[in-house]
Every structure is written in C-alpha cells, then in structure tokens.
Amino acid sequence: MHRTLWIRLAATLTVCAAAAGTTLLATASGGASPGPSPIAFGAIGKSSSGGGDPAAVLAKAVSQVPDNTIASASITKPPAGVANPHLPWLHVAVRVSSLQNGLDVRPMWIADLVQGELAEGIGASADLHAGLEGSTFDAVLPDGSVVPDESGGMGDVARGQVFSTESAPQVAAEITAKLQGLGLKPVSVGAVAIPDVAPEVVAIAPDPTGAAKNLVDIEKALFGDPAKYQGFYLELQSSDGTAFVRASAAFRTGAGRFWIDQRYASISSEKTLGRISNDRQGGR
C-alpha cells in the first residue's frame, strides 16, 4: 500500500507534514461537485497544451535530472483496484542512500519533479490528476536491494501553474541573500530544472529550536507564498553539521515530504498547517 496520505487543506505553501519522513498529497474540497477541485499553489497562466505522448514526455523529464537519482522510469498500467484503470501510471525506481533520517526525501523529491512534468505534459483536464492516475516509487538501496512501493501517488493539482523561469545562479544568489537575512548560514544553495527551476538548499541554523518553531515562516520567506518555484528541497543542520530537518515540496503533484529530528518534532511549526500524520513510524 502506498505510503501516502490524502489530506484536505487550504492552498498553503507547504503541504502539511509529519515528524517522521511522511509523504503527503493535497486535495481541495469540491463543495457540491462530485470530486475534489484541483489546488493551485502558484499563479495560473495559460493552460499547458498537454496531450503529449506519455513515454516521450517522461523520457524528456528524466533527461533533465542532473544526477543518477532515477534508476529507471516507465509508464505502466495502473494496479488493480484504482479508480481510473484506463489512465497512465508512472513507475520509478529511485536510488536512495538510506531510508533513515530523511535521507530519502531529496531523491524522492526528484521523482516528484519528474512526475510533475509528466502530468503537465499529458492529458488536457484542468486537474492534472485526471490525466495521470498515480505512481509507484521504489527505493533502490546502495546494496542493490529494492524496497517496493516506498512512495508515490498523485494529488489534485491545477494545470497551467506558472513558476519562476530564473536561472539556477540567479535563484542561488537570491536565496543565499535571504538565508543570511534569516540568520541562517548557507552550506550549499543550488537548483534543478525539471523543467522549471526548483531550489535545493542546505543551511546551518545556529538556533535549531528557533528554526524548528519558525520552519513554516522560513520556508515561505525562502520560497515564496504563494509558491514562486515549482518545488523546493530544504535541509537544516545544527552548527556541528548534523541535519535536523529535511523537507521538500513539489507543487505540480501536491507532494510534500518532511523529516525532523524527534527532539524538535513537538515544537515544529510545520504541523500547524494541517493534521499531523505519521504513516512511517520512526522514519524507518
């Protein structure tokens, strides 16, 4: 069973998160309509043309991944029992160094970005989920063993969201200045473009307790509210270089991933955005 949780929430910047590396996908209440209405995390521009060949769109997305995180990716038939078995299903094998301490957050985020480009490039519905039924992300460990169905899913997200088209160096310079303004020390600030830019940030927080309490405000200050970028990865470390937060968001799939050191879980502001979930006890 997919380690995902479908939640209802307002169109906030950060999908609600949990103390232990949980994947969350967003839907919005459709009122009297028969199904959920798609969420827009960013501004809506002209609807994308969509309608592309799923295999070709996927191949282009994977080609934009800057490293070997994606071991394989393919379009398959949905598993039995899904609501729309006629729709495409994405299967991705994702290389992860470990499933402990949130070390799967960044690799699975890369898969989220690939899935977002796929969803935007196929189908024609205002809800991207209406063109892509879902996904399965397997975790490939360093010893070659595979943890099947470690993550995946698809949120009800609006087609045609418009995000930053700045270059990676522009994004890095902007976010570095913001980190310094927040009292955080940049360790590495970069970005991937799949196809739009998505920052990945590692920074030291001299006051981990304060950073955990103000995590939502930090994310909004760095990445925009509403979302400026199609997604982000954020890792916060204590002064000795030990990570205590690993978080990501992908706004074309509605996926949010979050791990926090248990010492700070009870005080983190991240959980205030929605109900607390914990479908992987202890972060594995």
- The fraction of residues assigned to DSSP E strands is 25-35%
Mean pLDDT: 84
Structural class: alpha+beta
Provide the helix percentage: 10-25%
Order of helices and strands: EEEHEEHEEEHEEHHEEEH
Uncertain ranges: 1-22, 27-33, 272-284
Biggest β-sheet: strands ordered side by side in the sheet: 1-2-13-12-11-10-9
Give the domain tally: 1
Rg, rounded, reads: 18 Å
Instruction: Describe the main β-sheet briefly.
Output: 7 strands, mixed
Number of helices: 6
Shape: globular
Distance between the termini: 16 Å
Q: What is the total tally of β strands?
A: 13
Summarize the structure.
The protein is of the alpha+beta class and 284 residues long. 21% of the residues lie in helices and 28% in strands.
Describe what this molecule looks like in 3D.
The chain has 6 helices and 13 strands. With 284 residues, it is an alpha+beta fold. A 7-stranded mixed sheet has the order 1-2-13-12-11-10-9, with helices on both faces. A 4-stranded mixed sheet has the order 4-5-6-7, covered by helices on one side. Strands 3-8 form a two-stranded antiparallel sheet. The longest helix has 17 residues, at 105-121. Residues 1-22, 27-33 and 272-284 have low confidence and may be disordered.
